[in-house]
Structures are given as structure tokens and as C-alpha cells.
Amino acid sequence: GLIGAWFCKPFSLLKSAIDTGASLECGDLSPHSKEAPVSIALFSRENGLQNQATISPVAMLSYALMSVWTDLLSTAVHAPSPHNVQPWRVRILNETEADLFIDSSRTLPKEDPTGSFIILTMGMFIEALRVLATQSGFGLEHTTYHEPSWYSVEILKTRQHTFLPFARLRLTRESTEVSSLDPALFLKRRTSRISLKPDPVPTTVIENLKSLATDWGQRFEVNTNRDSIERILQKNTVALFEDLNNPDYHDEIVEWFRFTDKTSETTRDGLDYRCMNASRSAFWLSARLPQLLKLPVASSILAKVYRSQLGIVPTIGTLSGEFWAPESAFKTGSFLMQFWLTTAKHNLYIHPYGNLVTNENASAWLSDETGVPDIWLIFKIGYSDEPPQSYRRSVEEILLA
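The structure corresponding to this sequence follows.
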């Protein structure tokens, strides 16, 4: 549905009919004027006539076209974002145009000082809309309001809550492009923090993902060496524990921790304990008492607990290439959306280990360990049972009047 402020009575009737399965009956339309109002009556199968209003055919068409945007957005909101911050806001201008904004309260200036990961996320969101538009028979064009580097500076210096205009989006009526990515993949795609199954990723699938990366000027590699994987997982734990004791990192990430079902269902964002494959008590301790992670005995015990939560990790994947410059990050966002949806298409799940690339010491170590330079994303990849689905904010919540 459209943003609440736009719901005049006739539009509410249309939406109610769709939501409840009721029927709509329209009065006669004058053949002499396309502006002549149509009488609309909403009938419930159980209760009979419920409400009645009038709407012009032009407004009726406008509503239908606006609904294209809201339909696209209702699926696009399932695009991934760091810590599930969901930084996008949208203002629908008309049936073919909308403005996309960055919500400054949903950025990570302390963890992401270059702004690269938020800019990457905006690239993923636009690519998600483009894929979905194509499936609906539309094309999607965009024009950014500023160069990506402008946002990396603005995000850091912004102190008050604001919406940074990011791009003008335009739907085109005809599209010759055909996407092989089913919209259902947006819901199927999830981060899996639960144990993977021991089954290896088929060589044909690996080659397919490598080819996709190459087409976008990126590099995808896999590591199945058990000893190397354990060293990587251990280093990730060290980097995580170190970062949680960095006040800037700690204070920023903990704002996104969701410890209870009520909080998760209310905010519909952030790191939901259900999806973290951790008990609420362990999740709470890591947030409120991070100093425990520096004590030798406690650190050793908690490291073992964390490793057990990771479960079986038969394969580690890496993506490398141009990324850290804001302009590169934006383009890479389109690629990552395609890559992640393609893994879902092959029934694969991934779980990124962000600390291994954002922690400087860990990043340098990782390059030596893998022999792969310029890694910007490292993750476990494989098959697993269906993991919990993280919440997303509704279309009404991301729309701006």
C-alpha cells in the first residue's frame, strides 16, 4: 500500500479490497470525460456493503501505477545491509519517478569510516529494484545526486538526523532486459549463522560464481583446506573480541543488538538474537561486559563457545577487487546483489565475517594467509537448514511524504 498520508478514502477502499479479498463494483463512466468520477462500492463476502466513495479514472490509474513502486519496494527491502541497518528511505514522486535517500541515523561512521559499506548497500538496493522492475516488465534507471565520495564525507560530518538525497529513480515502460533471478530469491536469501552441512559446493557452481565475479571485474575464490579454515575462524574470533573492546566500535554496534522478541518485532531491524545463533544471555554478555573477552580464562571459554556456534564450515569464500574507494563500492553493490541472489538460486547460504576485513591487523593477516590481495568480503558458504529470517521495516516505514 501507499504511505498513509496519501490514502484518501477511495484509495483505502481499493487497498481494502486487495487485502481482504472483497469485491469492488464501479458505477458507469461517462463516455464524454475521462475525469468523470467512478462510484466505487466495497462489498465484503460476509457483511455486504461496507463503504462507498468516488474516484476518477485518472486517479484510479495513478494509484495502480504508484502501486508498482510499493510492490517493488515490498520485496526490495529484503536486500542485505550491514548489521541490518536498512539505510534506505524513498519518496515516490509520481508513477515513474522516486527519490532514494540515505537515512543518516542508519549509517555506521565509526565502523565504516570510508562509508564504503553503506554506499555498497545503496548500490545493492538499487540493483534489487532493477532486478524486480525487470521481472515486472519495466526498466529502472538512476541518476545519483552526488559522486559517491561526497557521501563518505557527509556521513562522517553529519551530526543531526537528516536524509541525504542519493539518487533519482526512474521506471521506463519498456525493457528488453530479462533477468534470470526470480523475485522469490530475495526472501530465500538469508545469512546463515547456523552450522553448514558437510556437503561441498559443486565445482560447476563455483565456476559459475567465479565467472559472474569476473564479469563484474571482481574475483571469487574458495578455500576448503581444513587447517586454513580453522586458522581463519580463530583469527575472526580474535578480531571480533578485539573490536568489541574498542569503545567506538562497541558503542555503535551494540545500538543495533536486539535482545528480545518484543524489541525485534518493534524495530524490525538490527541484529536479532534469533538470527545470531546465540543464547540471549551470551549475546547480552558480549554487549554489556566485553571486558570479559580480554580476560585469559573467560576469553578462552567464550572463544570455544563462539566456535561451537559456527558449527561445520567446509568452505570459505572470498571476494576481492576494487572496493574501498566510494565510486568502486557503489558499482560493487550491484555485483554483490547479483552474487548473493545467485548463491540463493543454487540453494547456498553465506555468512560474512566482517571483522576480518574491517580490522586492519586481521585484514593484513588474511591477505598473507590466503594469498589473495584486496579482499573486501570473506564468508562461509555452503548448504544448511533454513536459518531464521531477519525482520525488515515495512514499505510504509521507509517511505517519506
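The two ends are 14 Å apart (CA to CA).
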